[in-house]
Amino acid sequence: MERLSPDFRFDVNLLENKLKKIADELGKKEFDRDLFRDRFTSEGFRIGKLKPSAKNTSFLSVDSSVVKKELRHNAIWGSHSVVLYSEFDGKKHPDPLAQGIVHYTDIMYDSHIDVGVFSPYGQIDSRMNSIRVAEEYSSLLASLRSMGPRKVDLLLIDGSLYTTLRRLRDEARLSRFPEHKKALELHDELMGAGKVVGLVEDSHSSDLSKRVGLEVTNTTFFESILEENEYVATKKAGVNVCHIKLPSKALSYTHSRISDPLVVRWEFSYDDFMEDLSNLVGLWLLEDDIWHPQIYPMRITDYLTRRLKIGSVLDSLIAENELDPKYRDLREA
Known about the structure:
Number of helices: 10
Strand order of the largest sheet: 1-7-8-9-6-5-2-3-4
Helix content: 25-40%
Shape: globular
Order of helices and strands: HHEEEEHEHHEHEEEHHHH
Oligomer: single chain
């Protein structure tokens, strides 16, 4: 050990050697694309190819911003959910939020705000996630009921339908807290309300890549073996999970840049999804203002949820009512 003094030091050489070792380990490795592609199809999986299209479609999309604040003896939460109605008609319309053009019309929204107390106190993180799901799904269902005779073709969710269902079933079975059961009931209600589609932007699942002996995420695997517009669809717990390699597209904010192909995961609550998948890819290709897997309705819903800083609302509640924060927060303040 070193004698303590203002001249505190650490082993620079040791750190540099460890960083170099990690860099070598993470460096590019040889990958036989054809070998693993053939191995994957020999496992019974089918690689399909679609032709992007774009047809008139009406959407209800939902997203939320949720925050929890832990106090000394309990905890509170807040949620801001936004549901957006939009119709794609292939025509050019002024962007209602900024200068520019969008291909959607009749754009309307509902904003749902809620706050509550975790009672009893316990298992805050898992309950917070179930509260988020319940707030999103209940908001979407309420907006859907308010549409009356207006047709809604697709209900868009930001996140995985399959992963949410699996987690909610486990937690509703094992947990004594009511938030999980409520979220599961709303999930089941939503699945029966229409054609539900979920978008997973960055999946960490690796079950499919492991089938061919690789220890990488499914997304990384499909980036390596798929061509543009190719997809792989599997079914899990009644949900059709589809990985697709979105094609390159020109971006309007640069003269030279063409985007790289992008693997995303779309999930469908119904079986006859191929036409809708082709449509979603076609709509995404029309949006040349951003390189992002979300189509316009989901992107705007996400943006609107953050227009209200729900965390600041809870901070004001704590300050105005002189509620006691956790000791850690007192030390950091």
